[in-house]
């Protein structure tokens, strides 16, 4: 491909033969980046190590002894945190310009093994008793501190997940976890408020330029939590006690989806456009079925709706770059 391009440029007399030879030599001998391959291997290594540690505990729980297992997990976790702390960069509210890949994955390993350690202590020694909220809150606080101190978006995702779990544990009755009974109407409302709150934190972070790059994580997780909570009300059965009327939930989903598309165009993000289109399509489809059900004789609209909506999705994908706009253009 490079030779064809250079030949075309030579034919147009845009570059000289010496320049073409120099470019060809550079293209053949330039270093090949293994950045993403190495990060993938590191992620896989951390995951396999955490999984292997769990399997080791499960298969040898009677032979190793509980003290040895606790000590082993604690040692691995402390080693991960210690290495990350030793390689730490000065704290800044901006994105760290010189991150250490090894320290990032060591911190991730430390956080994962901390979860394993606390879970094992609770299972074997009932360390926290029935105070499940404290069990979830403790690692969540540690993860938030580590995420901001070491500028780690992966740990931030774990912290936000822990926060959502803590809110759920604190709000839901004990039967939700002991009897798998999650039919609690106000859980959806709490999830909606939590999701909107997380999205608001992301917007504030970007506006105040305080860990601005964390805004994407907050908005991605927060918007999904809020929209999924609204979808539970949207798809609740006639005998379910939802936290809001389904039609109102559909309108809320459409509004939030439009906000995601607006944000995507402003930040040139394909992910938020696709999320907005997906959730918006679910809400519009629900409203279409409600209209057909309420007004007799409109069933034929469905035969046009699905083909036309399919065409709309195809057009969206074909024009996705135009909708989002290029990175060189100012967002809308």
Automatic annotation (TrEMBL):
The chain crosses the membrane at residues 38-58, 64-85, 105-123, 129-148, 155-177, 183-204, 216-237, 243-263, 270-289, 301-320. InterPro entries: DUF2157 (IPR018677). Keywords: Membrane, Transmembrane, Transmembrane helix. Residues 9-154 form the DUF2157 domain. This is DUF2157 domain-containing protein. The lineage of its organism: Bacteria, Pseudomonadati, Bacteroidota, Cytophagia, Cytophagales.
């Amino acid at each position: 491909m490079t030779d064809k391009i250079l030949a075309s440029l030579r034919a147009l007399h845009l570059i000289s033969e010496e320049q073409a030879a120099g470019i060809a030599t550079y293209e053949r001998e330039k270093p090949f980046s293994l950045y993403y391959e190495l990060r993938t291997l590191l992620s896989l290594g951390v995951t396999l190590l955490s999984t292997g540690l769990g399997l080791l505990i499960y298969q040898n729980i009677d032979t190793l002894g509980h003290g040895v297992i606790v000590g082993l997990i604690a040692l691995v976790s402390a080693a991960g945190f210690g290495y990350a702390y030793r390689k730490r960069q000065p704290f800044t509210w901006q994105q760290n310009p010189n991150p250490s890949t090894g320290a990032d994955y060591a911190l991730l390993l430390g956080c994962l093994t901390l979860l394993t350690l606390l879970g094992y202590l609770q299972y074997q020694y009932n360390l926290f008793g029935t105070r499940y909220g404290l069990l979830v809150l403790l690692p969540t606080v540690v993860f938030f501190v580590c995420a901001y101190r070491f500028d780690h978006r992966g740990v931030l995702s774990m912290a936000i997940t822990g926060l959502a779990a803590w809110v759920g544990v604190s709000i839901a009755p004990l039967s939700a976890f002991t009897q798998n009974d999650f039919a609690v109407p106000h859980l959806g409302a709490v999830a909606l408020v939590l999701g909107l709150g997380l999205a608001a934190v992301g917007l504030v972070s970007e506006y105040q330029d305080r860990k601005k790059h964390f805004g994407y994580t907050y908005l991605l997780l927060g918007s999904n939590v809020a929209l999924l909570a609204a979808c539970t009300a949207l798809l609740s059965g006639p005998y379910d006690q939802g936290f809001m009327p389904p039609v109102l939930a559909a309108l809320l989903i459409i509004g939030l989806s439009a906000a995601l598309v607006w944000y995507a165009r402003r930040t040139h993000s394909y992910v938020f456009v696709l999320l907005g289109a997906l959730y918006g399509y679910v809400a519009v489809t629900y409203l279409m079925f409600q209209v057909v059900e309420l007004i007799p004789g409109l069933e034929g609209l469905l035969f046009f709706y699905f083909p036309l909506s399919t065409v709309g999705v195809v057009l969206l994908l074909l024009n996705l770059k135009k909708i989002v706009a290029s990175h060189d253009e100012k967002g809308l």
